[in-house]
Amino acid sequence: MSSVNIGTWPRPNQRTRSIPATQNPSLHALKTLPIFPKRRRAKLIYSFSPISVSAVLAKEDTVRDEEIQDFDFKAYMIQKANTVNQALDQAISLKDPEKIHEAMRYSLLAGGKRVRPVLCIAACELVGGREETAIPAACAVEMIHTMSLIHDDLPCMDNDDLRRGKPTNHKVFGEDVAVLAGDALLALAFEHVAVSTKDVSPARVVRAIGELAKSIGKEGLVAGQVVDINSEGLSNVGLERLEFIHLHKTAALLESSVVLGGIVGGGSDEEVERLRKFARSIGLLFQVVDDILDVTKSSEDLGKTAGKDLVADKVTYPKLLGIPKSKEFADKLISDAKEQLRGFHPEKAAPLFALANYIAYRQN
């Protein structure tokens, strides 16, 4: 279990910081950073485990961000994560051939923060939908995320031995079964949305399926992964290419998670597009933070192999910008994300505000 104090990262404050374009010509988002006035911030500590989620206020500070003033993030995450875990457990039962089902369940039920399915549910509820309406889509994005982890860990890809604190799927079941387990999860994800989504119009279900497919295909996750592989060891990879990799490889599925919730929840086109912009920012934010954690935390802290990007000579935000400017970029992204939530009902938007904070200040 790990915890993070949201006051631990330095933040720009009181004045606008400018970075000459000649230093970073493609880093348009960092040329002018927003003003962050000084104020006392809540010291929210988030802790995650496969069993429970904790969020407590530090005793020495009682002022919380205005966006989540009366929101119990701990209770929300526990309730949603438990609901998702139960639904995932029910979605894949042990039956013949047992080995493939064991392999699918091994990775799918190995824990994890369930950020993507919770984002899906929160977006659905934000636009007036019900939790049970979003559960099939929420499970689908977690199945696809798990598939991507299984395949990403394979020797032909990132060649990793540890995931969520456990041996990776191919280390337990072999490379052949691991590939097939990922394939099976991918197929099941689409089946689950199509068959299990209730009280949603066929047109919206089809739209959701199309959105999900696009996020992981040649214009989504696969595109990002291919460019990432082709960029290993190159010395001339710039920020524009790095942003392409992460907007497709990481942000696309997070974006899809939120957009699916908005679609099945009955959101208008305008609401869905605002949710899309919110998700795109937090999706890129997720990867920026991931890059920072990879070089600042241990394998024990992360539950996966630390420093593997450095070993693989992969281009990352810390490698191109350094850690301080990477953290400034994270501040810009979370500010942009929260701006898209303004105008929604504050109480209904509170979970997404809190989840954006979690993504920004997590420690694994």
From TrEMBL:
Keywords assigned: Carotenoid biosynthesis, Isoprene biosynthesis, Magnesium, Metal-binding, Transferase
Gene3D superfamilies: Farnesyl Diphosphate Synthase (1.10.600.10)
SUPFAM superfamilies referenced in this protein's UniProt entry, alphabetically: Terpenoid synthases (SSF48576)
Coiled coil regions, renumbered to chain: none
Cofactor: Mg(2+)
GO terms of biological process kind: carotenoid biosynthetic process
Example of a GO cellular component annotation carried by this entry: cytoplasm
Positions of region (Disordered): 1-22
Name of this protein: Geranylgeranyl pyrophosphate synthase, chloroplastic-like
Organism: Abrus precatorius
Gene from which the chain derives: LOC113870302
